[in-house]
Amino acid sequence: MEFWLVRHSRTAANVAGRFQGRQDIPLNEEGRFEAALLARRLEGAAQFTLFLSSDLQRAWETALIISRAINLLPLREPLLRERSWGFAEGLRRCEIAAAYPGLLCPVSGRLKALRCEGEGARRLLARTGALRRKLRRRHGSPRRVLLVSHGGLINAFISGALGLSGRQRWPYAPAPASLSILRHDPLRQRSRLLLFDDTSHLNIKN
Description:
There is one protein chain. By secondary structure, the chain is α/β, with parallel strands linked by helices. It is built from six helices and six strands. It has helices at about 10-15, 30-40, 55-70, 95-100, 120-140, 150-160, and strands spanning about 1-5, 50-55, 75, 145-150, 180-185, 190-200. Strand 5 and strand 6 (about 190-200) form a beta hairpin. The radius of gyration is 17 Å and the shape is globular. The chain starts with a strand and ends in an 8-residue tail after the last strand.
């Protein structure tokens, strides 16, 4: 099985550096252009047997733009939603540091999700595991799956597939409109990251 993992294209909140989480924010014009470039790359690149997307509109809009290029309609999958950042959603890092300094790790500067009543790493990992089980239960073993989701969810999906725990630092941070590919052997229960955070299709903007 191959999982082709697409992070949604850019939004105004991405540009402003705000934590979006479960906020339902649309793409901006740049994001729609990025999605079109990504769709052009995926057109003819592979035959997908299953196409799923988060139902948050920034991901869903990205998926619909892609669908016109690959001639396959996406299915809404709530398990692909971004992690919740609780009451920190909509804020920038500097605003969090000023108003809630205890929410940020003093060493890494990362936001601590549980402290802002969000979704912790263990629960997020469990959700990606539930997604993989749901895929097997409902769809058997689809050969090539296209998933449109969010940075935090993709981070956790890759980390969980490669055997990292919630206590370990996850080194993955996919950019907007990026493509990553994960190959999974269901018999051996092993996964390998073939491609990560590839945005070469966006170079045309330059």
